[in-house]
Each structure stands twice: as C-alpha cells, then as structure tokens.
Amino acid sequence: MNWYLDVLKKYVAFSGRARRQEYWMFTLINLIVVIVLAVVGNAIHFAALAAIYNLAVLLPSLGVAVRRLHDTGRSGWLILVAIIPLVGWIFVLVWLASDGKPEENQYGVNPKYAAAV
C-alpha cells in the first residue's frame, strides 16, 4: 500500500526515476480499486464512479510511467508510442517491464540502490 500512496504523494512529479516495483505495485492496486469501484458503482446504479476515479489518478499514473521510462534510460515522451495502433502499447509494456539501468543516468541515481544507502 505504501507504493500506491508514495505515487499519489508525487502527484505530478515527472522528473526522476521509478523502480519496477513502484510502478507495478501502483498499477496492481490501482486495478483492484477500479474493479471494486466498478462493482460498487453498478450496485448503486452510478456506473461513472470508476471513471471519476480513473480521471483523478490520471496524472499520478502518467507521472509514475514517465519516471519508470526514465529508469530504463528512455525519454518520458516515449509513452506516446502507446497510441500507435496495434503494436504501440506492446513496445511501451516491454519498456515498462524491463529492468532499470544500474548506473546513474541523466534522470538521476538508480532508486533501487539509492534506497539501500
């Protein structure tokens, strides 16, 4: 749960790096919340509940994805590759799942090793 809250605290932080664990834990918890809100929204006949939540976490989701791309040494603008029909999202998914660069890059020090110090 701390991974999720840490991303929300960095609401619009697009600089720096994010570990794989930070990104995927946020994504997992976010997915669980969306499913729960969709079920609750359907039960109370307010289907837009999950959509409102998705809109509220849009900027934190983009921020953590950009920081994740920074960790792999790529520009955050490459998130836009996902809009290429059929294959764009596959490239972005592979980049988000790949391991970060162990050395310091132009986006900062490796968060995996910086946390241990």
TrEMBL record:
Entry keyword Glycoprotein: no
GO cellular component labels: plasma membrane
Keywords in alphabetical order: Membrane, Transmembrane, Transmembrane helix
Family annotation (Pfam families): DUF805
Leader sequence residues: none
Sequence intervals crossing the membrane: 23-40, 46-65, 77-97
The organism of origin for this protein: Streptomyces sp. R39
Organism superkingdom: Bacteria
Classification via InterPro entries: DUF805
Name of the protein described by the UniProt record: DUF805 domain-containing protein
